[in-house]
Specification:
Elements lengths: L1 E4 L9 H12 L4 E4 L1 H8 L7 E4 L3 H4 L6 E2 L7 E6 L19 E8 L1 E2 L13 E2 L3 H6 L8 E3 L4 E4 L3 H6 L2 E2 L5 H7 L2 H13 L2 E2 L1 H10 L8 H13 L3 H10 L3 H4 L1 H4 L14 H14 L4 H9 L4 H4 L1 E2 L5 E2 L3 H15 L4 H13 L11 H11 L4 H12 L8 H14 L13 H6 L7 H16 L6 H13 L2 H15 L4 H10 L3
Bound molecules: adenosine-5'-triphosphate and magnesium ion (MG).
């Protein structure tokens, strides 16, 4: 086992962390910074959180600190150190500590690697007396380093050397470690892209041989690592690794349908490559999760909708409809929060907006704004930007300026029933319309007209139209609404349903 001194790193540790290690040491226990924070200190990166491991047991840790949280089965005690007031804490009543925002340092007793029968959960959590046991159970050599308050690092598995050569290796035999916890395979890819490391040959072979075990891992755990890959600076490299290692087909097999799916026309790349480039562009721009996912999925419906074309080599009619359904299924399966899924899906569904650039009308732009919501319209433009990356023909700047100008213009127009110059109360009081489905249908019919022509949003015009519409029978009023809708959908509902059936989405 290697020990080396890194006194220079001590200054980089925040006081509240040192306070926790020193408190444990003063009470006669061992205490080490461990895992990601030591790795990050050595790499000159800012640690995200600070983990401490110790030979003290939870019941010995808890009384040493004023405020702790302890509510898990792994023995981890969260030590809360109030922000701003670390040296004044003693003057605060314990009951007031709740009011002060806290730093949390996680302190975990040395643990032994226990048996895993289900490839994901240790059968029991066993504490140990020895630091070595705790380091042995950790996933990668670079994550298995421990540092004490003097800056001395314990390095049992040449983790420091692997940091220097930027190589990710499992602690111990890859096959064994991946069969204990298959999530480690995704963690390997995640750390590789987060840290800019390569996965060592032996570890990679271990993943290739164990890939199918990833199916034993819960959707939530897989999603968390997937999300970290997507949010890294190199998500395209990450997805590429998942694919080459044989993991992608268990996580998002739909993406593999795009491999070798040529597109023809202005597209230089197959669908899969195009999606990765779009995703990478979103990451280069620092755009958020929903946008990155929408970029990754925007053309995912293309392989299932590809047909030989007459003018072009292929057509992909309706791919955004099929793609939106696929994206929804994927994201629900991966248990992404509904808000994230909803936005990504609507972006995929609408990414073909303005596809015929010459005939675009303001009312069409208005309808796109209605569909994605005012707050998301610029995000939709960003998806378009991602979509253009990697094409032979760049978007002409004058055309982009035209879109921008049109969006700016329609953003001033009414796009919801709430923005009409008449509302339910007026309809009821002045025009004698009773609340209910008829009133809803009338308001919607008015909105349809105003979307086509915002100058119609006046009391005079709308009052007159209400009078006329109110003459219609229930059925006529209803079919009016339906006709308007049908005429304006790019694909009629029936046709969408047929496509879905045909493509099993
Ligand atoms: P981050 O900067 O993302 O927090 P990290 O290295 O701290 O990176 P965590 O997921 O927070 O990663 O885990 C903390 C430490 O716990 C790891 O460094 C590793 O030593 C250990 N660890 C976490 N998950 C596993 C696992 N599935 N198998 C083995 N060890 C693990
Ligand atoms: Mg961490």
């Amino acid at each position: 086992m290697k020990q080396s001194s890194h006194k220079n790193l001590i200054g980089k540790i925040p006081d509240y962390v040192t306070h926790v290690t020193q408190t444990l040491e003063k009470a006669g226990f061992e205490a080490f910074l461990v895992g990601g924070c030591v790795r990050d200190l050595l790499m000159g990166r800012e640690p995200k959180d600070w983990d401490i491991t110790t030979n003290a047991k939870p019941e010995q840790i808890i009384p040493l600190f004023e405020k702790t949280v302890y509510e898990n089965t792994f023995g981890t005690v969260g030590v809360c150190i109030p922000k701003y007031v670390s040296h004044e804490t003693s003057s605060l009543e314990p009951s007031n500590l709740n009011l002060v925002p806290n730093f949390i340092v996680e302190v975990t007793p040395y643990r032994l690697e226990a048996k895993y029968s289900d490839f994901r959960h240790p059968d029991e959590v066993k504490f140990s007396e020895k630091l070595e046991d705790d380091l042995k159970r950790r996933d990668f050599t670079v994550n298995a380093l421990a540092m004490n308050s003097l800056g001395e690092i314990t390095d049992m598995f040449e983790g420091i050397k692997d940091i220097e050569t930027m190589s990710l290796k499992t602690v111990g035999a890859p096959l064994e470690r991946f069969s204990e916890d298959a999530l480690r395979m995704m963690r390997a890819v995640r750390f590789a892209v987060q840290l800019g490391f390569t996965v060592s040959h032996e570890t990679m072979e271990g993943i290739v041989a164990s890939a199918s075990l990833i199916q034993n891992i819960s959707a939530e755990r897989t999603r968390d690592e997937f999300e970290k890959i997507i949010m890294s600076a190199e998500p395209a490299v990450g997805i590429g690794m998942l694919q080459k290692f044989g993991l992608l087909k268990f996580i998002i097999p739909e993406l593999e349908e795009g491999i070798g799916c040529e597109q023809g026309g202005a597209h230089l790349y197959d669908v899969y490559e195009h999606l990765l480039m779009a995703l990478q562009h979103a990451a280069n721009k620092g755009w958020p999760l929903e946008v990155r996912l929408a970029a990754l999925f925007h053309d995912i419906g293309k392989p299932r909708s590809r047909r030989p074309g007459t003018k072009k080599a292929y057509t992909f009619y309706g791919h955004e409809v099929i793609g939106a359904r696929m994206a929804q299924k994927i994201m629900e399966r991966m248990k992404f929060p509904k808000k994230v899924t909803d936005l990504a899906v609507v972006l995929v569904r609408q990414h073909m907006f303005f596809s015929d650039t010459e005939t675009i009308t303001l009312s069409a732009v208005r309808r796109v704004v209605v569909k994605v919501g005012k707050e998301n319209i610029w995000t939709l433009m960003n998806i378009r930007e991602c979509d253009r990356v990697g094409m032979a023909k760049k978007e002409a700047p004058y055309r982009l300026r035209k879109y921008h100008a049109m969006i700016e213009e329609v953003l001033r127009d009414p796009i919801s029933v709430g923005q009409l110059k008449v509302d339910g109360t007026i309809l009821m009081k002045e025009l004698n319309i009773k609340p209910g489905p008829r009133m809803g249908a009338i308001l919607n019919a008015l909105l349809e007209e105003v979307l086509d022509d915002p100058t119609k949003n006046t009391r005079e015009y709308l009052d007159r139209r209400v009078g006329e519409l109110d003459q219609l029978s229930d059925t006529d009023l209803k079919s009016l609404g339906e006709k308007a809708k049908e005429a304006k959908e790019e694909l009629e509902e029936e046709e969408i349903a047929k496509l879905h059936k045909k493509h099993r989405v």
